Amino acid sequence: MNQGAASTDVETIKTSFAELVAVAEAGDADGYLRYITDDAVYLGPGAPPVVGSEAIHEFVAGFFAEWVFSFPAWTIEEIIVSGDLAVYRYAGVASFTKKDGSDSFSEDRKYMDVFQEGIGWSLAAFAAHVQPQRVAVSYMANLPGSVLSSARI
After folding, report:
1. Where are the beta strands (DSSP E) in 14-149?
2. Can you give the pLDDT at residue 152?
3. Residue 8 CA to chain centroid, in angstroms?
4. pLDDT of residue 119
5. Torsion 103-54-92-71 (CA) sign
6. Contact (CB, 8 A) for 110 and 91
7. Is the Cβ–Cβ distance between 48 and 60 less than 8 Å?
């Protein structure tokens, strides 16, 4: 791949990611699907993998029903493009507010996403690293196969 193509891909991935964040901040589970592959994998902290666009849609719809998510700024650590795959590593502070107002907090997180080129660049895998906290315990503990328990709150 020539340098110009890689540079264009990197810019497209940055744009796709920013759009995905905006959709998540809007709590738009249907819109979220436009940015992921059919076989995407979500690896959230302390929870079992969520595999496939239908399962991820169900997961984010449930999450967005309970929580407001905010990710106003992030630092790109690395974007590596190789063929039709790209690794996107970044860090930032994510904020969560329970819609009923009963809870809110922020977490300093590190991420590694894999994007796949098809019709544009789409998210194929998402992984977040953070100490399990209230949002992970309260929502993700209820997922089948979760390693979290309410005793960790």
Report:
1. 36-43, 50-51, 67-70, 74-82, 85-98, 104-118, 120-129
2. 35
3. 23
4. 76
5. negative
6. yes
7. no
Domains of the chain: 3-142 (3.10.450.50)
**What does the pLDDT profile of the chain (153 residues) look like in tens digits?**
434 557 899 999 999 999 999 999 999 999 999 999 999 999 987 788 999 999 999 999 999 999 999 999 899 999 999 999 999 999 999 999 999 999 998 888 889 999 999 878 999 999 987 754 544 445 555 555 544 443 333
Amino acid in the structure at residue 14? K
Q: How many alpha carbons lie under 13 Å from residue 16 in its C-beta half-sphere?
A: 26
What is the spatial distance between Cα 88 and Cα 81, in angstroms, rounded to a whole number? 9
> In the chain, what is the straight-line distance between the N-terminal and C-terminal CA atoms, in Å?
48
Helical H runs in the chain? 3-25, 29-33, 53-66, 134-135
What pTM does this model have?
0.79
CA angle 75, 65, 36 (to 5 degrees): 50
